[in-house]
Amino acid sequence: MTDFTGGPGFDAFVATALLTLVVIGLSWSVTRELRKARVNAPQDDAADAADGSAAAPETGVAESTVEIEDEDGDTRA
Fold first, then answer.
1. Are 77 and 65 in contact (CB under 8 A)?
2. What are the C-alpha distances in Å from 3 to residues 6, 11, 74?
3. pLDDT tens string for the chain (77 positions)?
4. Helix and strand tally (H, E) in the chain?
5. DSSP letters for 7-61
6. Has this prediction a pTM greater than 0.70?
7. Interior angle at CA 52, CA 38 and CA 34, nearest 5
8. What is d(CA 37, CA 45) in angstroms, rounded to the nearest whole number?
């Protein structure tokens, strides 16, 4: 018969516990930062409106410069 010495052991328990604590800490930090951003965002918009320097919001989408040719030979941007 083979000798069964047990499961992964204490080292695996410690590694799992540390990983759990790291994930909880990161989640707490991200939640705190998102809450700050949500609270401060309206104040920033109000300050821009008061300055009169409110720029057009960026959509983050680049304009397409690629022309696509369909089956009929028509091109479109």
1. yes
2. 9, 20, 75
3. 577 677 888 999 999 999 999 999 999 999 999 999 888 877 655 666 666 655 555 666 666 666 777 777 776 65
4. 1, 2
5. SS-HHHHHHHHHHHHHHHHHHHHHHHHHHHHHHHHHHHHHHHHHHT-PPPPP-S-
6. no
7. 10
8. 12
